UniProtKB/TrEMBL annotation:
Gene3D superfamilies to which the protein is assigned, alphabetical: 3.60.21.10
Organism, scientific name: Thermogutta terrifontis
PROSITE patterns associated with the record: TAT
InterPro entries linked: Calcineurin-like_PHP, Metallo-depent_PP-like, STPP_CPPED1, TAT_signal
GO molecular-function term, one example from the UniProt record: hydrolase activity
Superkingdom of this protein's organism: Bacteria
Name this protein carries in UniProt: Calcineurin-like phosphoesterase domain-containing protein
Occurrences of domain Calcineurin-like phosphoesterase (ranges): 41-259
Amino acid sequence: MVSISRRDLLRGLGAAFGALLTGKSLTRRASAEEGAKAGTFRFVHLTDIHVQPELKAAEGMAACLKHVAQLNPAPDFILTGGDLVMDALEQDVQRTTLLFKLFTRVLQDNTSLPVHHCIGNHDVFGWGKKHGVTPETPGYGKKMFCEVFGYEKTYYTFDHKGWRFFLLDSVQPSEKLLYEGGLDPEQWEWLEEQLQKKPAGMPGIIVSHIPFVTVTVLPDAVQDSQFRIGAGSLCTGAQKLSLLLSQHNVRLAISGHIHMVDEVEYRGVKYVCDGAVSGRWWKGANKGFPEGYGVFDLSPDGSVKYQYVTYGWQAAQT
Ligand SMILES: [Fe+2]
């Protein structure tokens, strides 16, 4: 568990809610020169799809992709934000294989856009070690995700129109909780190296399943007169990450996992916790946040506009 003092929390909350309510950026805007080579384009972020044969989830995922196809202007590509399937963490190999097959089939049938995937906790196969799954079972852990999508690693970068994207793996093993949010030492080293290598004038975007900075978890976090947040809800190392991002011209950090929506400006970086395609795991809106996805419009000056878009899904049961 992560404990936060009440004073720190209120200070953070005040700033974050202030930004949310007024829509004002608390921090710097890029100079025209800094972002001169960056392009204008749109992409979408579909997170927490949690596809499964039940609850009309596959139909819902298809409806969401069809909605994306109607956007004007059209997005250049889709980012997924993790928790693609429901669920690989505690299932056997047959069910997990079926889920990933379902996911790739629905994707193939309903979009022709390029897709870049980010791993979520529910996409890790077998860490729950149920149904006879052991570390020797084929595809165990993050291997299945890499095999399904043809990735060498669960974290990687790609460039698009003068912007660099860093897709991170924020799911780390935990004896107590099965998983915790954060990066392992190897990935921290890799990220620091990659940020050093990125041309300074090139704006960057990071994507993680579990958020580093968000206020969505706070309103429900009071227990025994303390704000307590599970280590599976947020990534550790947020202060280190936020400093790194602000030093390396990273403009945006996108996450999912919470199935709620916020935008926080912190140290010159916009942190977006995006809502879930599945809403409340295909049972309607989650705490007032309906099924939807993120639309991001990027400008040559390095600025980013985010909208949470719903696609009119009616849950099979609530
Ligand atoms: Fe999720």
